[in-house]
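Co-fold these.
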Amino acid sequence: MESSHAGVSRHDRTKPLSDVALSSSAALVQATAAPPLLAGWGRVPEPGRELLGENLDALTRGAALSRGLGRSYGDSSLPAAPGDKVVGTRLANRILSFDEQTGILRGEAGVSLAELNRALLPRGWFTPVSPGTKFVTLGGMVASDVHGKNHHREGCFGAHVRALRVRLASDDVIEVGPEREPDLFYGSIGGMGLLGHILEVEVQLHRVACPWIWMESERVGDIEQFMLGLDRAAASWPMTMGWIDCLSSGPALGRGISMMGRWATPDEVGSLRAPSERTATLPFDLPNWALNRFSASAFNAVYFHRHPRSRQGQVVSPDTFFYPLDAVLEWNRAYGSRGFTQYQCVLPRAAGAPAVREFMTRLVRLGCASPLCVIKDCGPEGRGLLSFPLEGTSIAVDMAITPDIQRVVDGLNEFVIAAKGRIYLTKDRFTRADHFRAMEPRLPAFFAARDKWDPERRLRSAQSRRLFGDLP
Amino acid sequence: MKAVVLGGTSGMGRSLVQRLSERGDRVFLLGRDAQQLARSAADAQARNPEALAVGHAACDLEHPEQFAGALDAAEAALDGFDTVIVSAGLFATQDRLEEDVELTRRLVTVNYAHTLVFCEHARKRLLARGGGTLVVFTSVAGDRGRKPVAIYGSSKAGLSAYLEALDHKFQARGLTVVNVKPGFVKTSMTAGLKPPPFAGEPDGVARDVIRAIEEKRPIVYSPGIWSPVMLVIRSLPRFVMRRIGF
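Predicted complex below.
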């Protein structure tokens, strides 16, 4: 039993109540069962637990890592050692200020994008950059420097962050921005929480005319068409992306559906009403065999052919457009108890279409058997010291954990290194330290910032242990 | 809605304040910690579509002499209120309470006696204005005398009995009483414990409570699964309850 529940602390008094019976029976279960495990979205756990709380100022003292809603796929938000203090920020979810004139918002690190959308989208404000799920926190969006369908226009989330309040490894708290301690500021953007605990985020929101999206989509026959189409669409559309059938080969290699969107005008929307909050939950793990090469191929063929041959245009809700997978909560259970990972890389524009075709060919040959494969053209690299995107083509594909997953990731990484691309740490669980060093020329600057702000490497994660050799 | 909330700076009370504010309801916050009150007031204001200023006042369930003044402040700031929400209270495990009789005294005093006194103040003010809504968080722990919640649960059982009687007595005069019975909810209070199946999120409880207020439901279990679960627990014979650990 932890001391925080063993008695009534001063802080507990104004706390709402919950069922103590279950608390104690759950504690009993815990005392006798295996050590607690903590996992990311890919559900491959590490021993450890997260400490949830509302007061980050108090909680992050002496902590090794902060994590938000645990949507990073791999080990970014998992402890380097079972005893490391990992703070869960999601209960620290207060908006501290919002200026309706300027759109500048300051919030605690645990404010989720789902909440921001719920509170502010009806009032005409939206995050400048949205990842593919709204179940992420402000702190997580900064630490991963997330990108979205508008990367070619707006860059990453970090490009719109004005200031951060950070708890350092020394336990001091400081406010940083582009002009104040820029190495710490830009090191925190995309820095996977390794330079300091993000306590508060100040970000510039964007005004939208009405809370609906005009979306157009069309079938694309192969990978060259895909890249050409995305390139052309980038000029006229603020948001673009594509779904690729990564199991088709031969002349249909890289076929898929490209999607383009922009905020709709009031005329297009008419009298549409805001959709309800209804969601479904995947209530149990599917068996490990459920998602295999054949079921995935069948799914992909249906998904591809269901789309009409002609270009389609329609008004859709932002949830449908930005977060189609959020409609099924806990969809990560579809991969079964074995868990899964996502491989996401970006190949520089200089490497061109042949590199993307070659990458897709390898992917198909590996038969990674996943219906989820997404392509996106990225704009210029941001200023975050370890920010993922660079100008080129990003490809993300989900893969179930299989016995040869390490070999698969190694093989893809070797190709990405040769093409001078890089991978996205937020999705990664299997990249080798030497491979990461080979694809990341910016590492010395990041290490210099770590040497300055956390020379003893008190802040660490299972990922930093794997990639940077942080010792537990 | 113009609501006074005691305990709205954290946990389920916070989520409720956030959702009410987003709907455009006006809130006034009561609690112990001035700094937390100020931050939560800023949050409520930012979420309110009209960005109405949100007031707050000190009110500690261990100090009943503060109750009248705190409600006066709320009435002045809101120009009268129609809803009072109490989500504050004390919590401790049965083991801890059995070790510490003074803690037990404090807990049952706050959770039962002082909460009841606060509700009496609130009830009178609501009735004086022709009625209104009183929302009080109890717990599924109050539904049956049970080993792991012998003391805490009994404080909630007493409060539930009082709330039921309030409903019987004053419903016809326009008082709506909503007794919220949460099950295991993932708040900082339960942090570190392995959540049982059907563990709830504070935001989900807030959504259930708002629906219950709108539908004037006297009792709401959240997550809803606890309604049938507790129906079974209430009907178990004594010889079974003596044997099981639940």
